[in-house]
Amino acid sequence: MSKARKTAASSGEPDFWRVARDWLHHWLPKVRGSSPKTVEAYRIGLESYVRWLETTEGTQRSHIGFGHFDRARLGRWVEWMRTERGYSDRTIMLRMTTMRVFLDHAGLEHPALTALGNDAAGIRVKPPARKPVDHLGEEHTKALLTAWGTGDAKSRRNRMLLILMYDTAARIGELAALTIADVGMDKPARVTLTGKRGKSRVVPLGERTRTHLAAYLEEFHPGPSMRDGDRPLFHSTRNGAIQPLSVDRIDEILKTAAARARRGTCPSMPERVHCHLIRRTRAMDLYQPV
Length: 290
Hints:
By secondary structure, this protein is mainly alpha-helical. Helix content is 55%, strand content 7%. It is elongated.
């Protein structure tokens, strides 16, 4: 046993390497049930600190103990990662999370080390910047809403579906559930959407959407006989029977429109376009800061 190990043992300090090995090989995977990737991420974080102690602080690897995990050193490590290594805020936060989890475990196993975990928790690191709200630009929205064209009845139906999806910011299930009874064409035009847990809300329509919808109703639901309240607003015909469009079919219509726009007038259209993205886009378009 080295002189440093003897000193640590005689002072009653737990062996850092033994505790680290138990944490990585037993406690994380078997007690906590962490995935192999999580265990590996923690191993890399702990090894990063050990290497920093060796190369920057001049500490021999065999001499490393819990006395090297004080708040001052951890603070210097954070600053080194930021200024010397140029690590991102996210990487620094993940590395400090490793320290906190490890030292919390050490404190549970050896109560005398509890103060180290408390000190590590007190070190504030800059949280990673949040990604900007994901939404479509004006050119993407225009390309998406016109991608289906008006050349045939199915395309006109699909185009109307996307126009209504955008103008109402409806969830995909709410669109699938729309019936004739949910549409009010007298001004102000509106639709009633029934969402999660059966809650309904009335959404007014813009004048241009009202014009498009009036033309759609004349084509797909002409005359009083076709205005049965239970008749699905967007439907297909199977074996002579009217069936509402399914959620999967609506999602397919949206993705096909995005693919068409990407191949045509808008090559910058995002690869992944979904109904929630349209809802966020509508919210951003409605919010116009002065």
